[in-house]
């Protein structure tokens, strides 16, 4: 009989801790079991394999995306939303890699997509352009998070949050102008 505290939710929480602290490469069922103070066999009652664990972890990530509503005007709200998503994913560095790998199309990510597209439409983009801008903003965000190599950055400096904010504004205003 599995421990009362050993649930899929507890396993995902432990997996998130391991991934946040040690990186996604270190995320194994054996490592998560050690984090929970149990053996890997106990986890197999709840999780079939590492692939399922990664799927559950990606789902957990998606359900945690921040949905911002504050901002002086619609464009400010868009910028705040993408900045909040940047900060959220920066706190879970493995998340950008999972998203970029594209293996998980999760229903739990749909509310953030709809929220972002609605914000882009409120900022003056028609629905089709808003969807395209949403995709482009994901590429921008993931590139910003995954580009750890300084080559190509002026003076070897990495971009900061203001660079991302400026790029989001440029992308949205440019899309609105087309």
Automatic annotation (TrEMBL):
Residues 28-47 bind DNA. One of its GO terms (biological process) is negative regulation of DNA-templated transcription. Residues 5-65 form the HTH tetR-type domain. PROSITE patterns: HTH_TETR_2. Keywords: DNA-binding, Transcription, Transcription regulation. GO terms for molecular function: DNA-binding transcription factor activity; transcription cis-regulatory region binding. The keyword Lyase does not apply. This is HTH tetR-type domain-containing protein. InterPro entries: Homeodomain-like_sf (IPR009057), HTH-type_TetR-like_transc_reg (IPR050109), HTH_TetR (IPR001647), Repressor_TetR_C (IPR004111), Tet_transcr_reg_TetR-rel_C_sf (IPR036271). It comes from Actinocatenispora comari.
């Amino acid at each position: 009989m599995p421990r009362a505290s050993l649930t899929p939710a507890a396993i995902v929480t432990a997996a998130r801790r391991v991934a946040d602290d040690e990186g996604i490469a270190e995320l194994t069922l054996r490592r998560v079991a050690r984090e929970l103070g149990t053996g890997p066999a106990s986890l197999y009652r709840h999780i079939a394999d590492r692939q399922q664990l990664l799927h559950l972890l990606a789902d957990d990530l998606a359900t945690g995306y921040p949905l911002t509503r504050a901002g002086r005007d619609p464009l400010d709200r868009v910028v705040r939303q993408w900045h909040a998503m940047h900060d959220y994913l920066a706190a879970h560095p493995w998340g950008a890699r999972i998203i970029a790998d594209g293996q998980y199309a999760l229903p739990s990510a749909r509310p953030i997509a709809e929220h972002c597209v609605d914000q882009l439409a409120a900022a003056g983009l028609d629905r089709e352009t808003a969807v395209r801008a949403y995709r482009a903003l994901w590429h921008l965000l993931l590139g910003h998070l995954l580009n750890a190599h300084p080559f190509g950055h002026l003076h070897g400096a990495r971009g900061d949050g203001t660079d991302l904010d400026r790029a989001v504004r440029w992308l949205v205003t440019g899309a609105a102008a087309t």
